[in-house]
Amino acid sequence: MNTVISVMLVSFFTNILLALIKIIVGFIGKSSALIADGVHSFSDLTTDVIAIVGSKISDKPADDKHPFGHGKLEYLTSFFIGLIVILLGLFIIKDAFNKEIIVTSTIVIIVSVITIIAKLLLSSYLIRKGKKLNNTIVISSGKESRADVLSSIVVLLSAILIQLSNKIEFLKYADVVATIIVAILIIRVGFNIIKENISNLLGESETDEIIINKIKEQILKIDNVYDIENLNVIKYGSYYKLSCEVSINKDLSFIDAHDVVHKIEKNLKKMDNRIKYVLIHANPSKSSN
Questions:
Q1: Is 289 a domain residue?
Q2: What is the number of domains present in the chain?
Q3: Model pTM?
Q4: H or E segment and range at residue 281
Q5: Which of the ends of the chain has fewer CB neighbours closer than 10 A, N or C?
Q6: Is residue 19 domain-resident?
Q7: 89 and 10 belong to one structural domain
Q8: Which of 192, 276, 280, 211 lies closest to 237, judged by CA?
């Protein structure tokens, strides 16, 4: 099992545990907002699932029909996950309008505080590991976990406000309002998943300047490479397909030129394990440097 999958499994099982706790306590404490927050945590699992599936797919070797592997299956899977997440959010909103108004238990407050702390710790762990592994998917999962804290804060505030409903009557609707807010956040997650993966299915290029510049620096470090004439880094699930044209010393023999190209490919794959397929076209430099 590779390190990325190990890290994402920690996130996966932590989110499952938190989601189950929220849903169970939501039923016990009669809080539809906490139940919705539990569903939101399940929607947060989509990033973990995508990362795990992506890593597994990346390990599947290329074949005659798929010379660049099967990474784009990850995007198709994610698209359908996004649709399911949106439908869940819409169902929660529909159910919220039919819900009987009940003052929730104070246990909802306690669980909300615990889940907020747990989410903050998990997000810090994922971001730290993602930076160490140089993996944007793990970092993105960490940031998404941190953003998920917002829904738990909404639930916490609603649970506190509804306790005051005996003094201020309209506060009895706090749980319903919080449920709708969390459901909207769930729908937003689904739309973001669909939007991102439609773009990737069409063949999206990596636009992160830090990543692109690191690749360029690595190529230009190679002896007899004078310039990069063209560079494309295409996303294929959890890995990249890289193609570029480089200008090399025109006085090199065919064998030496081949060695330069091979060294570029080897160094790029060593620098970033997401670079799985590399196509280098070498052009003779117009002048020797």
A1: no
A2: 2
A3: 0.58
A4: strand 275-284
A5: N
A6: yes
A7: yes
A8: 276
